[in-house]
Design a protein that fits this description.
Distance between the termini: 24 Å
Radius of gyration: 18 Å
Shape: elongated
Bound molecules: protoporphyrin IX containing FE
Number of domains: 1
Order of helices and strands: HHHH
Oligomer: single chain
Number of helices: 4
Number of strands: 0
Helix content: over 70%
Largest sheet: none
Length: 157
Amino acid sequence: MTLFIIARVIHIIAVVMWIGGVAFVTTVLIPALKRMESEDKKLELFELLEGRFAFQAKILTILTAISGFYMTDFLSGWSRYLDASFWWMHLMTFIWIIFSIVLFVLEPLVLHRWFHEQAEKSSERAFRVLHIMHIVLLTLSLIAVFGAVAGVRGFFM
Ligand code: HEM
């Protein structure tokens, strides 16, 4: 039981730091950068800050997954994936898969270079697309947090 509580604490701290970071980038950093005059500085600052956050986010997604799958096993909860009333389990896992693919595969191999090229062609368009992608991911993440907190307390049963 103690390990389960430790896993839950790790899970929540990792989610708070990770999704909190995504919320900061989406609601503060990108809107502020979009208003910056100098296009070179805008791109340079974004790459510097997002790069540092991406490193943290990689560690946080790993901690979230280890603690999340441990809790699923402890609760004998694998069958939840076959039950639609546990949609929030599906959503949590889906978000983790999307972020993991972006952070570990797409960003280093494709996205970093692609965004740099797009920003050099049209900074306004590149930052608009980037902002929309962040808004979608943040919205889905907040729905997952809502679903998990309410679902654990039997809200959807
Ligand atoms: C591999 C991915 C993940 C797995 C396997 C997973 C699994 C779990 C499990 C088993 C629980 C405990 C449920 C219970 O006590 O009945 C939980 C709790 C929670 N998860 Fe996840 N999770 C994952 C990712 C995420 C993500 C990405 C988020 C946020 C966007 C998230 C947010 C939460 C929250 C807020 C709780 C706590 C609910 C509460 O106790 O009030 N999880 N997760």
